[in-house]
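Let us practice reading a record.
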Amino acid sequence: MMDVTERLSAFEEIANIKAKYCYYADTKDWAGLAMLFADHAVFDIRAALAVDPDNTDDMFSSDGYQIGKGNIIASVVATSPKVIKTVHHCHNPEFTVISDSKISVVWPMEDRIFFVNGDPVNLMHGFGHYHDTYEKIQGKWLITEVRLTRLHIEFT
């Protein structure tokens, strides 16, 4: 099992990955975002516009579950014309070491999604959690799973 120094190093690297995730998503740097994911990653934002994690009736429900880095990025890029800009903040991570090469993290999060004019919703301000898994693959930590759940959403 990892010693304290290895754990702290892994936690720091993973925290930097999540910071880059937010930055790349907000700046629409899709190539940068892709570099953070493992080839076999799973991305689940089906409940992105609802506080019910079982919700399947919003704009993300049909494409909000993707398997594979290429599919994830293609889905994000396809959704991006509906969004003017985003602001993501993640903080206070709760790390759980599963093995020397696998760590799960719950990230409390807040985001603001500004939709294009003419959509039924112009702004969504959300609060919730990212439930992520990271794996060390060929010496590098990568995202292998992202699942978004919501606690509260405000629409304007």
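A brief commentary: Residues 4-155 form a domain with the Nuclear Transport Factor 2; Chain: A, fold (CATH 3.10.450.50).
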